[in-house]
Write a structure and sequence with these properties.
With 264 residues, this protein is an all-alpha fold. It is built from eleven helices and no strands. Helix 2 packs across helix 5 and helix 8 runs parallel beside helix 10. The protein is globular.
């Protein structure tokens, strides 16, 4: 993955924003009775909390903050996956997250462990919910990939995006903007999914849980669009802005670079 330079302040702001977003999503899923989603979002909030703590402790003065930040993200995501996706003898959602946290904290020194204990999310929203099963974890990737690999699925989505946008632009040339917009919508969501798949692979999220969680943020962001411009380029720009903003400023820039051109 190409790393583009960003200031420590931007990196830190993106991380702290994600903590709040994942905590909110976890509570929403829990209220809906979606134990797997609630636990997964809580784990994701934990990842970002640990990133923020490590950033505060050692990375502010780094000469290469973006690369160091990505390295921390990779290490933490892999550590969390190791313990959280296969919790030992957990029968409840609370036990599953506690087991994950025990494994995660073991990778850090006592001072960092103390900070984590004070700042990780309360687990009251998980009370009464069951622990995720191995079958539920496996089903996430199966639903997303079918029988393909992540690389194959990403390439397929990218190709779909190209075809959808080519159709959209042809319809625009024919003056059929209303017919073109659904195809452009499909193109941008295909690009978005390809990006999420690649990002999950880059940090070792073989379960693809991060893809589902971030997809939920994007759905919320686009559902909030009240109306689209009659101008094709403006309408597409609005949708793309919502998709990019759902990822935060850093990854949003990377996503924008992957969207298909919209010049007819």
């Amino acid at each position: 993955m190409t790393i583009t330079s960003h200031t420590p302040e931007v990196l830190y702001a993106d991380t702290t924003s994600r903590i709040a977003s994942y905590r909110g999503l976890a509570r929403r899923y829990a209220a809906e009775g979606n134990a797997f989603g609630a636990v997964s979002a809580t784990w994701a909030a934990d990842i970002n909390t640990v990133q923020a703590i490590m950033w505060e402790r050692v990375m502010i003065a780094s000469p290469t903050p973006d690369q160091q930040f990505f390295d921390i993200a990779t290490t933490v995501a892999r550590a969390l996956a190791t313990y959280a996706l296969h919790p030992p003898a957990a029968t409840t959602a609370v036990e599953a997250v506690r087991a994950a946290r025990d494994g995660l904290s073991a990778a850090f020194d006592p001072a960092a462990q103390s900070l984590m204990e004070r700042r990780l999310s309360p687990l009251d929203h998980l009370e009464g919910l069951p622990a995720p099963t191995a079958a539920e974890v496996a089903e996430v990737a199966r639903q997303r990939l079918g029988g393909a690999t992540v690389a194959e699925a990403s390439a397929e989505r990218t190709l779909e995006a190209r075809h959808y946008m080519a159709t959209a632009l042809e319809l625009v040339r024919e003056g059929r903007v209303d017919d073109a917009l659904p195809h452009a919508w499909q193109a941008d969501w295909a690009t978005f999914e390809a990006y999420l798949l690649d990002a999950a692979a880059a940090v070792g999220d073989d379960s693809l849980i991060s893809v589902d969680l971030r997809w939920a943020f994007a759905v919320d962001a686009t559902n909030a669009i009240e109306s689209l411009s009659a101008d094709f380029a403006d309408a597409v720009s609005t949708v793309r802005s919502r998709l990019a903003d759902s990822l935060g400023s850093i990854e949003g820039r990377r996503l924008r670079e992957r969207f298909e051109p919209i010049s007819a």
